[in-house]
Amino acid sequence: MTDIPFYQAGISMTQYESLDVALTRLEAAMRAGDLWKSQVQPEPSAFDSEQPFNADTMSMGQWLRYVLIPRLRSLMEGRHPLPDNANIAPAAEVYLQENRSSVRLPILEALRDVDNVLVNGELRPQEGQ
């Protein structure tokens, strides 16, 4: 028996499993770029924003860490329907422009995976597959 993850072994995943992989990649990219631990917990009132991505009350990094990832994980854990549209990566590209490419690009790639899972139900093909 090999230790190849089932998503690399050609076995199809559910949308929840695909989203779990995409969110794990996103968190890993944020951690690798030191964007995870540098995000200060927003004030409770910051979550009341009606702006997309809470842009008026949070940085993109805060929104990813404290809003997007926890909300999607909560939906998955409860086996609730997932949003069927997403356009997170293009918005994040605008908001993360100030970050170094080595930080920004892996996060954007992970967000493209999240978008694809939400819209198409599966991960994007990875290079070399």
Key terms:
single chain; 129 residues; mainly alpha; de novo design (two linked rop proteins); 50% helix; globular; disordered N terminus
List the helices and strands and how they pair.
Layout: H1 15-32, H2 60-77, H3 88-95, H4 101-120
What is the total number of structural domains?
Answer: 1
User: Largest sheet at a glance?
Assistant: none
**How does CATH name the architecture?**
Up-down Bundle
Radius of gyration, in angstroms, nearest whole number: 15 Å
Helix share, percent: 40-55%
CATH fold descriptor: de novo design (two linked rop proteins)
CATH uppermost class: Mainly Alpha
Structural class: mainly alpha
Distance between the termini: 20 Å
Using the alpha-carbon principal axes, give the shape: globular
Average pLDDT, all residues: 87
- The CATH superfamily is known as YqcC-like
Compressed to H and E, one letter per element, the order equals: HHHH
Approximately how much beta-strand content do the residues carry? Answer: under 5%
Low-confidence stretches: 1-11
Number of strands: 0
- The total count of helices amounts to 4
InterPro entries: UCP006257, YqcC-like_dom, YqcC-like_sf
Pfam families: DUF446 (PF04287)
Protein name: YqcC-like domain-containing protein
Domain YqcC-like: 22-116
